[in-house]
Structure formats: structure tokens, C-alpha cells
Amino acid sequence: MEAIAIPVPLRRRGWQTAREIARFALRLLPRREAQAESRADRIAAEALDTYGNAILRCAYSYLHNMADAEEILQDTLLKLLTAAPDFESEAHKKAWLLRVAANLSKNRIEYNALRDCDELDDSLAAEGREDLSFVWEAVKALPTQYREV
Fold this sequence. Notes:
Elements: H1 8-12, H2 18-63, H3 66-83, H4 90-114, H5 122-141, H6 144-147
């Protein structure tokens, strides 16, 4: 097994082997993950308390649907956590959050419009079934060698 060179600052802490360093790093990892999660929770809670109402009202003004507006609020907070931009002031932060909420709302309107469809009339659905039965009867009338596609 090859010896791993230990950097000088780590040797000063009294660690002599790479195994000791790895053990220390593994003990720190859950702590750092927990700190990152608590930091994200704190940022999201602070933004929700401060700007949540404004974001919700902005989204609702576009969508006119409270369930969609609440989803936009959640998506806006996720964008804040994933982008993690630095803001010059609280006014810039609020403007950024409202712009993100407006853009997400516009995207949702476009998404809903693309998937908006009218229900099929019962009379049209029945006509479709008749056409299918006619085709099936025609297929049955064909010789066996021509029935398979």
C-alpha cells in the first residue's frame, strides 16, 4: 500500500495517517450537511415571512387560482435557494423574487393554455365507435393472409 503524503497543516493537528484524516472528515460531513440544511431552512423561512404575501399576491394576480399561486410561491423560494444570488439591498431581493414569481406565473399560464382542451361530445364519441366497428368488419372480410399488418 502506498503512503499518502499528508499536508503540513494537517500534520500540525496531530494526524499521522490518512485513515485518521478520513475519520475526521466523515465526522464533519453530517455536521456540514445539517448546517447547510438549517441555513437553507432559515433563508426560506425568512423570505417566506418577509415576502411571501407579496409573492403570493403577484402570482394570484396572473393566475387567478390559489393552488397554482401557492405552487408558484414554492417554486420561487426554490429558485432563491438554488440560485443563491447576492443582493445589494432588500429592495433588490424583493424585486428579484417578484420578477421570478411573475415569470413563473407567465410560464404556468402558457403551460395551462397548451394543455387546455375541450371535452369530446358524446355524439362525436359514438360516431368514432361506429367508424371503428366498420373498419373491424372490413378487416374480418379480408382473406387471412392479408389481415396481419
